[in-house]
Amino acid sequence: MRQIIVYTSGTFDLFHSNHLKMIKYARGLGDVLIVGVSTDELVSSYKEPPIIPFEERIQIIEALKYPDIVIPQKSLDHTEIVSKLHIDIFVVGDDWSGKYDYLNELGVKVFYFPYGKGVSSSKLKKQIITNYQEMKERIDKHDNPDIIIDKS
Prior knowledge:
single chain; alpha/beta; Rossmann fold; five-stranded parallel beta sheet; about 20% strand
Protein backbone atom coordinates (compact mmCIF):
# COMPACT_ATOMS: atom_id res chain seq x y z
CA MET A 1 0.00 0.00 0.00
CA ARG A 2 1.33 3.44 -1.03
CA GLN A 3 2.04 5.94 1.74
CA ILE A 4 0.21 9.28 1.77
CA ILE A 5 2.72 12.12 1.50
CA VAL A 6 1.78 15.46 3.04
CA TYR A 7 3.61 18.73 2.37
CA THR A 8 3.26 21.91 4.35
CA SER A 9 5.38 25.01 4.20
CA GLY A 10 5.88 28.42 5.65
CA THR A 11 8.29 31.09 6.73
CA PHE A 12 8.07 30.02 10.39
CA ASP A 13 9.56 33.32 11.56
CA LEU A 14 9.25 33.91 15.31
CA PHE A 15 7.94 30.35 15.68
CA HIS A 16 4.63 30.30 17.59
CA SER A 17 1.71 28.08 18.52
CA ASN A 18 -0.20 28.49 15.23
CA HIS A 19 2.86 27.25 13.34
CA LEU A 20 2.97 24.22 15.60
CA LYS A 21 -0.78 23.58 15.25
CA MET A 22 -0.58 23.63 11.45
CA ILE A 23 2.40 21.26 11.36
CA LYS A 24 0.70 18.91 13.84
CA TYR A 25 -2.52 19.03 11.78
CA ALA A 26 -0.57 18.22 8.59
CA ARG A 27 1.13 15.30 10.39
CA GLY A 28 -2.28 13.78 11.08
CA LEU A 29 -3.33 13.77 7.42
CA GLY A 30 -0.85 11.22 6.10
CA ASP A 31 2.04 8.84 6.57
CA VAL A 32 4.99 11.05 5.63
CA LEU A 33 5.23 14.75 6.46
CA ILE A 34 7.55 16.99 4.50
CA VAL A 35 7.90 20.56 5.76
CA GLY A 36 9.26 23.29 3.49
CA VAL A 37 10.88 26.31 5.12
CA SER A 38 10.89 29.42 2.93
CA THR A 39 14.34 30.83 2.25
CA ASP A 40 15.13 34.43 3.16
CA GLU A 41 15.31 35.28 -0.56
CA LEU A 42 11.86 33.85 -1.22
CA VAL A 43 10.23 35.63 1.72
CA SER A 44 11.90 38.93 0.79
CA SER A 45 10.36 38.66 -2.69
CA TYR A 46 6.84 39.22 -1.34
CA LYS A 47 7.11 40.75 2.16
CA GLU A 48 9.56 42.08 4.75
CA PRO A 49 12.52 39.76 5.33
CA PRO A 50 12.27 37.39 8.29
CA ILE A 51 13.72 38.38 11.66
CA ILE A 52 15.13 34.89 12.26
CA PRO A 53 17.67 33.81 9.58
CA PHE A 54 16.80 30.82 7.37
CA GLU A 55 19.48 28.56 8.87
CA GLU A 56 17.98 29.01 12.34
CA ARG A 57 14.36 28.67 11.17
CA ILE A 58 15.08 25.37 9.41
CA GLN A 59 16.88 24.04 12.52
CA ILE A 60 13.83 24.87 14.65
CA ILE A 61 11.54 22.90 12.30
CA GLU A 62 14.02 20.00 12.12
CA ALA A 63 13.95 19.80 15.94
CA LEU A 64 10.19 19.15 16.00
CA LYS A 65 8.92 15.60 16.34
CA TYR A 66 6.25 15.89 13.60
CA PRO A 67 8.20 16.33 10.32
CA ASP A 68 9.85 13.35 8.65
CA ILE A 69 11.73 15.55 6.20
CA VAL A 70 12.51 19.29 6.28
CA ILE A 71 13.59 21.04 3.08
CA PRO A 72 14.26 24.58 1.86
CA GLN A 73 11.38 26.13 -0.06
CA LYS A 74 12.65 28.40 -2.82
CA SER A 75 9.48 29.12 -4.80
CA LEU A 76 5.80 29.82 -4.19
CA ASP A 77 4.99 27.71 -7.25
CA HIS A 78 4.68 24.18 -5.91
CA THR A 79 4.15 22.41 -9.25
CA GLU A 80 7.69 21.03 -9.44
CA ILE A 81 7.95 19.98 -5.80
CA VAL A 82 4.57 18.18 -5.96
CA SER A 83 5.78 16.19 -8.95
CA LYS A 84 9.27 15.41 -7.64
CA LEU A 85 8.13 14.40 -4.14
CA HIS A 86 4.84 12.69 -5.15
CA ILE A 87 2.84 14.85 -2.76
CA ASP A 88 -0.78 13.82 -2.14
CA ILE A 89 -1.85 16.55 0.29
CA PHE A 90 -0.76 20.17 0.66
CA VAL A 91 -1.45 22.16 3.85
CA VAL A 92 -1.00 25.92 4.16
CA GLY A 93 -2.42 28.68 6.38
CA ASP A 94 -5.77 30.12 5.36
CA ASP A 95 -4.13 33.51 4.87
CA TRP A 96 -3.18 31.97 1.48
CA SER A 97 -6.78 30.90 0.73
CA GLY A 98 -7.30 30.11 -2.96
CA LYS A 99 -3.63 30.64 -3.89
CA TYR A 100 -2.88 26.93 -4.23
CA ASP A 101 -6.14 25.67 -5.74
CA TYR A 102 -4.20 24.93 -8.96
CA LEU A 103 -2.63 21.96 -7.17
CA ASN A 104 -6.02 20.20 -7.27
CA GLU A 105 -5.53 19.83 -11.03
CA LEU A 106 -2.33 17.88 -10.28
CA GLY A 107 -4.25 15.45 -8.05
CA VAL A 108 -3.23 17.11 -4.78
CA LYS A 109 -5.78 17.74 -2.03
CA VAL A 110 -5.28 21.27 -0.69
CA PHE A 111 -6.17 22.14 2.90
CA TYR A 112 -6.14 25.76 4.07
CA PHE A 113 -5.46 25.56 7.80
CA PRO A 114 -7.61 28.03 9.75
CA TYR A 115 -5.17 30.41 11.37
CA GLY A 116 -8.06 32.52 12.54
CA LYS A 117 -7.36 35.71 14.43
CA GLY A 118 -4.76 34.17 16.72
CA VAL A 119 -1.04 34.59 16.81
CA SER A 120 0.99 35.46 13.72
CA SER A 121 4.62 36.44 13.24
CA SER A 122 3.53 39.77 11.74
CA LYS A 123 1.36 40.52 14.79
CA LEU A 124 4.18 39.48 17.12
CA LYS A 125 6.63 41.82 15.35
CA LYS A 126 4.19 44.75 15.63
CA GLN A 127 3.55 44.00 19.31
CA ILE A 128 7.29 43.85 20.06
CA ILE A 129 7.84 47.22 18.35
CA THR A 130 4.87 48.80 20.15
CA ASN A 131 6.00 47.45 23.54
CA TYR A 132 9.55 48.67 22.93
CA GLN A 133 8.41 52.15 21.93
CA GLU A 134 6.13 52.44 24.96
CA MET A 135 8.88 51.25 27.31
CA LYS A 136 11.43 53.61 25.76
CA GLU A 137 9.05 56.55 26.07
CA ARG A 138 8.46 55.80 29.78
CA ILE A 139 12.17 55.42 30.47
CA ASP A 140 13.20 58.51 28.51
CA LYS A 141 10.68 60.73 30.35
CA HIS A 142 11.54 59.89 33.96
CA ASP A 143 13.50 62.30 36.14
CA ASN A 144 17.05 61.41 37.04
CA PRO A 145 17.47 61.46 40.80
CA ASP A 146 20.10 63.74 42.32
CA ILE A 147 23.06 61.78 43.50
CA ILE A 148 24.09 62.68 47.02
CA ILE A 149 27.47 61.53 48.12
CA ASP A 150 27.91 61.24 51.86
CA LYS A 151 31.50 62.27 52.68
CA SER A 152 31.30 61.90 56.45
